[in-house]
Amino acid sequence: MGALLCTGLPEARAEEPDAGTPVASTAQRRGILTLRASWRTGVPDYMGGSLTVQALPLVDVELGATLVNPVVGSLYLRAGPRWSLYEGRDDAGRGLSLRMSALAGARGTSAYVVSEGSFGAQWGLNAVAALEGTYWLARYFGVSAQLVAGGTTYFPLRRPVQVLLGPLTPDARFSLGLSF
Known about the structure:
Blueprint (H helix, E strand, L loop, with lengths): L2 E3 L7 E3 L17 E7 L2 E2 L3 E10 L2 E11 L2 E16 L7 E19 L4 E21 L2 E14 L14 E11 L1
Antiparallel strand pairs: 1-2, 3-5, 3-11, 4-11, 5-6, 6-7, 7-8, 8-9, 9-10, 10-11
């Protein structure tokens, strides 16, 4: 687009704006990666870590590892839609963002069975709802807090790992992290 420059001549001509002039943009860069850790804030997990990638504009993919106790641990991979609840970032990229997501995927739990001297494992379907807030200190760096609640239904195998009795094992945690 050019700016109309009027001269004393009967015709007007368009001139391009100066290419060196910065143009203000209100579009914010969305976070693409969050690293999180939890310590003594989960059920049944004692400690854990996760990596969440915003693969598409509205989809989260999360990979995590947890320990229930020194001999029982698990890995999970889940994905699902993400909704923005509040976006309060300013033009410099600083401010608060709140998001909610519904994630589902696989969770594998393994345990060292002392009486047998070997590992036993069990896989299940994991589904959670997550509420996450990120305070962006800069356009590309923020501090994140996440609350997760849901559960896992384990498939019956020959040697099931009974983390908790019943058809559904709860999965809840509070974690802190860094967003990029």
